[in-house]
Structures are given as structure tokens and as C-alpha cells.
Amino acid sequence: xxYNLPMEVKLAVSKVNKYxxxxxxxxxxxxxxxxxxxxxxxxxxxxxGKAAKQVSSLVxxxxxxxxxxxxxxGAAARAASDYLxxxxxxxxxxxxNIASIDLQTATMVITRNNPxxxxxxxxxxxxxxxxxxxxxxxxxxxxxLITELTLEPGLTVVLFTDGLVHAGSRSGDSLDIKTILExxxxxxxxxxxQLLADQFLSAAMQLDRGRPVDDISVVVIQVGSExxxxxxxxxxxxxLS
Amino acid sequence: xxYNLPMEVKLAVSKVNKYxxxxxxxxxxxxxxxxxxxxxxxxxxxxxGKAAKQVSSLVxxxxxxxxxxxxxxGAAARAASDYLxxxxxxxxxxxxNIASIDLQTATMVITRNNPxxxxxxxxxxxxxxxxxxxxxxxxxxxxxLITELTLEPGLTVVLFTDGLVHAGSRSGDSLDIKTILExxxxxxxxxxxQLLADQFLSAAMQLDRGRPVDDISVVVIQVGSExxxxxxxxxxxxxLS
Lengths: 241, 241
Description:
2 copies of one chain form a homodimer.
Chain A: E1 7-16, E2 26-32, E3 37-45, H1 49-68, H2 73-87, E4 94-102, E5 107-113, E6 118-121, E7 126-129, E8 145-150, E9 156-160, H3 163-166, H4 177-187, H5 193-207, E10 216-224, E11 232-240
Antiparallel strand pairs in A: 1-10, 2-3, 3-4, 4-5, 5-8, 6-7, 6-9, 9-10
Helix pairs in contact in A: 1-2
């Protein structure tokens, strides 16, 4: 083991469909890494509804299948890009984010093929991983941007699809994502990523008056300073309406 | 849509390693179904530690990859059996359970290649799905047992690996799984499957004096009568020690 403190990683996903569509164009899946740790993979397919879902689901499936075979995140993202480019002849794009807790290297690895930023906070500061990069599927040789962070208590990462940024666009409003994150980091005594993901989503839905203009997915990962017990937990909540 | 009530499905997994082993021989993954809904796939590889993990992970990966392509649960289980039989020449077995919320049919589909029972409770009664069946990997043509249940509020399903049954075996004790489940069903006002999964695990760990004699995984799925909001949520808690 490369880390010597007891730590605990908590991950939360909150996801809502565009108003009046039964399928989200976003796909998010979490998978165990074969050499220890977990990865979350998030894709947003071009347009919305069934067609977008097909694309994002194809991308996420390809990535999780490669990750589960031990392929590294960057190579999996490039493979997914080539695959989508080949399948859809360069006509359909998708954004792709991967965030991995890699226990082999004791790091969090963040992979972006998404113009949107990823927010990264430590106990010291809050920074934005927003160097320019392309979605996948449109060009040959699309490469992801990758950043690798040492796993340590206090590390907090927030990723999202563009629905979060588009919220409020009907009325000319927009969400101040950074301020919500800062307020959470100041107030939260215990890591509670689900609370933060839900705060983003409810603020977005409020701007859209309960009728989201786009599919929204938010992923929050937070490293805590000690594990309450040795139990791994996973939970899912799936509304059927 | 085949169901006309608003409902909410909640799923929880709690998992702990055998004492003093860094890897669990159990694998559990949750995946979105391409035609709507989710599936949870749980496998327990023969023996424990790294070798068992390899087997259970191979089985779960095969099953989720097939499910994500739209293959039906029974066919996916048979494919995983043939695959393990071929890969390991019939010398290694694994138990396999799949539980799916299938929104195409508005049912919960439970697939067993595991001698251990699955508990199924509705608002009316509690029954045990325990017809005889074989683990996969040892024989050609191993078939799963499948049961299909209408999705309705109150439906509660509990599946687990044999670690839960072996708990206490060092001291000749054993867990009364049915009684714990009955007490939960009587007391719980709101569906809280994570609470129940944790109750099973902590009772088992108490019998083993905090040192589990085997890897333990518990999956609880519960259908509630209404969704609190339209948000899908997933959360993961991963202790690193």
C-alpha cells in the first residue's frame, strides 16, 4: 500500500432527465477496478432523448469494459473515441469524463474529453481543471486531458454534464457552481458528497422552475480522513414515474 | 409503461472482506439496463483472496457486459457458466446471483446459480426462493433458476453470499437471517435497504467477533410506494485501510 493513513472515499451521483423526456442522454456507471479502487465514467451524448442515450451508453460501456480488464484510463478514453468515430462515421460527438480511485498508485486520476471544467478542492485550495479539450467521436486521434492527484483527506472533486451549466438559460440565469462548492466546503463537517450533488441539482432545478432544460448529471467524490468501519457500501435510488 | 403507480426502487449493497485479507472473493456490480432499469450482479469465487477475486470478477464482468448489450438475465448467466467452465476447464466454481429491475416488463427478475436462498417479501408474506440449483463453472449446461415478480410497493428482496451463513461457525453460532428480516419489515416505516444490509453485516461481524471468517456480501432491494423526487442517485463508500 502506498498510502499509510486510514482514509475513506465517498462517491455520489445525482442525475435528472430533461423535462418531459423519459430517457436521459447522460450515462453514468461506477465499476470496481481490477487492481483495486473504483472508477466512475460519465458520458453525455449529442442531442437528447433516445439517440443521445444510445451514444452515451455505447461510450460508457466501452470504457467500463476496458477499465475492468485493467486498461488504463487514458487508453480507455482514446479507445472509446476511436470506437465512436468508427461506429458513427465522425458524425456524432459525446463528452466523456472518468474519475478513478486507483489503489495501485494511491491517486485519483481524472480524465477529461469535455470542454466543461472539473473542480478540484484540497484542504488548501480550490482549483479548476479546465484546459481546453475536445469531446470524442468527431476527430481521429482525439486525446483526453489527464490529471493525477495524491489521495489525501480533504480531496474533493466535482464533475458534471452541461445540463448543470445550461440550467436557468431560459430566463438568462445561471448557476454559480463555484460558490455552491465553496459554501459546502466551509460548512460540511463530515464528507457528504450526496448532499453536495443534491444541492447542485436542486439549485439547477429551481432555476429551471422544476422543468430541467437538459439532462443533468453531477458526480462528487470526496476523501475523508478515516473510515467509520471496514464495510464497503453502494446504494442506488431509482424513481419510477 | 406497464406500471401506473409512482414507485421508487432502492438498492443497497454492504460488503466486508474476510478478516486479514486485503481482497474479497466476492464481486458485486450494479449496471443500468439498456432498455430501462438496473441490474445487480453478485458472484462468489471458490476459495478466498486473490484467486477467488479473479474468478468472481471474471464472472461478474461477463454478465454485466452481456446485460448492457440487452442480453436477457438467464442467457447471461448461462453464458457466464460456459465461459468459466471453458476458461478454468471445469475446475473452479462460482456462485452467481442477478437481480434486475426490468422496466420493459415492470418486473423484478431474480436469477440464481447459488445453493443459498433468496428471501422475497411482499406486503402479504415472506417466502424463500430456495429450489435446488448449482453454482456455475463445474458442469456443462448449468442452468440458472429464475423467478419473476411484479414490481409493486412493499416488494423486498434479500440476497447474500455464503459468508453471511458461515458467520459464527467458529463458535457454533449462526445468524437467523429470517428473523432479522422480519423484524426490519415490521419496524421500518420508510424503505431503507441500506439499514437492513448493514444490520445483517453487523450481526454477522458480531458473531465473528469483528473478524469475519469469510467474505460477506449482502444485497437488499426494496420498492417504495412513491418517489420523493425525480432524481436518480447512486452512492459508494469505500474504506481504505
